[in-house]
Amino acid sequence: MTQEQIDRQLVRKAQRGDRAAFDMLVIKYQQKIVKLVMRYVRDPVEALDVSQEAFIKAYRALPNFRGDSAFYTWLYRIAINTAKNYLVAMQRRPMEYDVDLQDPEQADIAARLRDDDSPEGIAQREQLREAVEKAIASLPEELRTAITLREVDGLSYEEIAQAMDCPVGTVRSRIFRAREAIDSSIRPLVE
Amino acid sequence: MRCIRMTERAALRTRSGLATLALAAWSLPALAGSDAQEWLDRMAYAVEFLNYEGTLVHSHGGHVSVLRVVHRVEDGIASERITSLDGAGREIIRSSEETTCILPDEQMVMVDQRDASPREPGSPLRQRVLPYASFESAFYRARLKGPGRAAGRRAQRLAVTPADEWRYGYRLWLDHATAMPLKVQVTLKDGEVIEQLLFTNIELPTTISEDRVRARNATDSYTWRHFRAAVPAGDAAPGTAAWLARELPPGFVLKAARTKIPVGDENGGTMEHLVYSDGVATVSVFIEAAVDGELDDEGGYRVGAAHAWRLRKGDHIVTAVGEVPARTVELIARSVTPVR
Amino acid sequence: MTQKSLEEQISAFIDDELDPRELPLFTAQVSRNPDLRRKLLRYRLAGDCLRGEHQRAGSVMDLAERVQAALIADAPAASMAPPRRQAPAWRWTALGAAAAVVLAVAVVMQAPVQQPTGSETMLAASDSRLSPITVAVQPLPAPVRAEAQAAAARQMRMTSYLVYHGEFAGTLSSRTVASRIVDQDSGARWMPARHAVHTHD
């Protein structure tokens, strides 16, 4: 409910030309959109370009977005069309997989199957993973539980509050404190 | 220390008698609690015969795990899938024929086949020997508490208090509309919460499609281990059991005895399985032939509110397991002896 | 508004838990503050790492910036070429990360590091689903390995006992029994526990 409210607010502002509001929408959905585009466009660099293009198209089409569907559903269709058009322009057909791309779980697996990684990339990723794991391990119990329930298990604040038997405000604060602790570990690696 | 142990031992010998006397007086008010028993009967029905799907958070001793539960009922027959949302994604699939346990981390599937003999109607979850737990007994007192909320739904709260320290108590939040347990806390006799199970969200649709209860893991390359019961489960036949517990905590009686055989390995070790219950809590006792090198793990084990006690009896190893205090599994395990 | 409360709002925003009333001020402040924007992206990256689906830092991280730059520059819509292309090949890395985590967890499962001493502190130490990974990469001395194998065998046996026991567990415990079966991380790790009734001398 909150998510739709927030998206609607951001969209309304962006429709009035507020780039900051649109920026928030991009930040919010960029990962999902890149993953989605990766189902069609194998090359990661190209996928990133196509994703960027999809967001720009969305921005330009925003005045026509009437809010009949959720913003992400609308953006999703734009991204798929952009990717398909790109493949046509490049005269390539979408890749075929044994898995059903309509199923988000399977599509994710398909994306993983296409991995082609450089040693440098692996090393950096490994470093990041280690830093996050160390940071998580040294968190106080209640912070570790809160952030894990949120990030790994995908529970809402309300659900976590029930599970941990504490107010929602406490959950919000615990998750924030956990993120701050992890952030201080990964910041030197990515900045 | 020795002095304390002697006292404990002496207390143990007289406990049964004293407990019976004490309980007779203690349990009188429980008879008035039929409203509570009605809620608990509805709860047992809901768990078994309603369609539901939800996220269950299980916490104990600072550890939290999250499960996805899908429970489907079609023509009165239930099946369900429970998947761990943490770790490797272990799964349990229950159908009316068997319980399948998929352990991707071990690349293994364990199948516990139900008895071929008279097919029991209804749910795989229906407890064989305890179709409906009897809370109105000398050993538990169930009382309605006020209204509450859980999983974003209106709930009726209940408290089930144990009469002694041989069993746990429970605090329940039952869905106001359906009596589905939305939140269950396991407590010690003094009320301390040691384990909690909570639906953070739950849906109760009228139907659930069959594919929702199918395994999510691809198990073709896994090692499969099948077991079946040689003696129909649910046959509480003390006369046929090769082993029995000679001393039991008050209220516990033998409910079932069966032999489990690994399928395809008929010469392999069989396993005796005895089931004791006080009407609410259940203790399983497993007796297997000892394998060399297995002498080092005698003693008590625990995880959350569950305890196990494991010890060697001659050429056999006896293990008692249950959602009961440590003393209960220990007493039962220690007293298990061959019938002849 | 303090920096801290703004950062807490970033955290809530990521989780779709921001109060809509907080949104206008939040958007304005975060969008024009590069430090806060980067913090938001790092928070998300940390979440991706936790789920084992993180990409290489600096890849998706800057997509929003690129989109902003393109909008400001009013780049022609027809062009598929981005305003600036990253020189090193950007790589999708989810598989590697997922494999690493799976492998690490498998190592832990095959060789639980040591027989717990039965103290509550051991229980607490094994609670984190992630911390054992760093421990598991240490080579184990032979006696510890043997002990670990015995512990692993015991866990498997306990798991099978639970499966059989589960058929008979009452309404109130059937779910916790199931939970102990499917939770291989620490739920299924049985801890030695002693009790006063115990009469070993």
What is the element string of chain B, with H for helices and E for strands? Answer: HHEEEEEEEEEEEEEEEEEEEHE
How many helical elements of chain A? 9
The overall strand count of chain A is 0
Oligomeric state of the chains in view:
heterotrimer
**Shape of chain A from CA axes?**
globular
Q: What would you say the CATH architecture of the largest domain in chain B is?
A: Clam
Please, how many helices of chain B? 3
Report the sheet with the most strands of chain A, covering strand number, pairing sense and barrel closure.
none
What's the topology here?
The complex is a heterotrimer of chains A (191), B (340) and C (201).
Chain A: H1 2-15, H2 19-38, H3 44-61, H4 71-89, H5 104-113, H6 119-137, H7 141-151, H8 157-164, H9 168-190
Helix pairs in contact in A: 1-2, 2-3, 2-4, 3-4, 6-9, 7-9, 8-9
Chain B: H1 2-26, H2 34-49, E1 52-60, E2 63-74, E3 77-84, E4 91-94, E5 98-103, E6 108-113, E7 140-150, E8 153-162, E9 169-175, E10 181-187, E11 193-203, E12 223-229, E13 243-245, E14 253-262, E15 271-277, E16 282-289, E17 299-303, E18 306-313, E19 316-322, H3 326-335, E20 336-338
Parallel strand pairs in B: 6-12
Antiparallel strand pairs in B: 1-2, 1-11, 2-3, 3-4, 4-5, 5-6, 7-8, 8-9, 9-10, 10-11, 12-14, 13-20, 14-15, 15-16, 16-19, 17-18, 18-19
Chain C: H1 3-14, H2 23-31, H3 34-50, H4 63-73, H5 94-110, H6 120-125, H7 132-136, H8 142-166, H9 174-182, E1 191-192
Helix pairs in contact in C: 1-3, 8-9
